[in-house]
Amino acid sequence: MLLRQLEPRTARTTAEVIRFALWPLAVMTVLHRVFIKAVNGFVTDDYRPVYNASFQFLNGNPVYTANFDSVDPHYLYPPSGTLLIAPIAIIDYEKSRWLFILLNAIAILIAWYLLLKLFRYTVNSVAAPALLLAMFASETVINTLVFTNVNGCLLLGELIFLHLLLARRDLWAGAVLGLTIAVKPTLAPLLLIAAARGQWKVFVTGCGVPLALTAAAWPLMVDPEKFFTRVLPYLAETRDYFNSAISGNAAYYGLPPWLTLGIRITMALIVLGSLWLLYRYYREDELFFVCTASGVLLTAEFLLTSLGQMYYSMMLFPFLMTVVLRNSVLRNWPAWLAIFGFLSYDKWLSDRWQDVGRNLEYLRITFGWGLLLLVVFCVLADRYLAARAAGTLDKGLDQDWMRTAPDPRGPVSEDAEPAVGAPTPVGEPGPATANGTAATVEPAPPATEVPAGHRP
């Protein structure tokens, strides 16, 4: 069956043309990123301090010995993360790094598949190669593999968590999220999504797993207390290098503290406004609410805390995928200008205009995250004001064309599996009748003209 899928054929439809064109581009891009660019590495090496700390842990030596006065990558994982990641130092550094690159690549590929399934697409749809190509062309995936850090595994944990949360398998969802928090607390804000949905059991395992792993690691380490007395205070500080958070760029450019605080408070209020509108009017639209609210929370975390790095943006993939939904807040050009800012692998450093190029390169991530949060708030606020003026707030914020449209998570090509409840295409065999023959669906009468300003 697989060989028949690979058999060269001439495309007969536009969807097939796009699929046939995108799959080779996507596959070759994946192979290049994993086996050439990642293995080659870069001057920035996130894996070396992790490997060294794991080696010291396995040999009963102190782990938290990094010199925080240098700009080199430091080992910042908690004791629970040290326990989980320690096996990487069983073999020599080079082979260990290659295996870790492969582990992250596999994790990203599984996350890609789960992201398709979350929005009811199949690998036969146009969305499959398009999404795969977009992911592996992004800065966040490229540098995760090149720098060799754990972000790919965190993305997989996020997708598994979202699937289990929507299926209301709360304890398992919390356990998966807890494993990611045990290594890095990047996804901890997603606990608020569970709280908003009343899924309190998520907190049992979401908090219990990292606590249990910390308790297990504590007696096995020489200096576990130094994570809390030395590493956490460093993490709470704002550094002015490799930091795209508002506070990081403000420190780099020398902004006065009152202005930095004012910008952060303003953006925090915008985030709170978006989250309130999502909770108040979209809580029952489960997929849209969970993915959009999680994207807002994580973007706010990257932008408003003491440290935000560009490749954290990988965790926003589920939010960006909501663009396929009819009521998505990302169906406008400012949203994708923002997304370009923090996902593009392009470098804007210029030999001719050095100051301008440096500013564009250093600020585009911060502006991208900030603009994305502004877009979300403006779209939701505009919908709210329009619904209030029309007296339809009791029906939600979506316009009629959003509510009555066919399921936007249906197939994007003729080979994709139809979504549950999707209408049978005109002229195609319908469900079998009582005598075993398939009924043919008759063409529907002409649709009523859609009013101006409400085009689907």
UniProtKB/TrEMBL annotation:
Group of enzyme by EC: transferase
Keyword line: Cell membrane, Glycosyltransferase, Membrane, Transferase, Transmembrane, Transmembrane helix
Membrane topology: Multi-pass membrane protein
Cellular location(s): Cell membrane
Keyword Glycosyltransferase: yes
Transmembrane segment boundaries: 20-39, 75-91, 98-115, 121-138, 145-166, 172-195, 202-221, 258-279, 286-304, 333-350, 362-381
InterPro entries associated with the record: GT87
Region (Disordered): 400-456
One Gene Ontology term of the molecular function aspect: glycosyltransferase activity
Its EC number(s): 2.4.-.-
Name of this protein: Glycosyltransferase family 87 protein
Listed Low complexity bias regions: 429-442
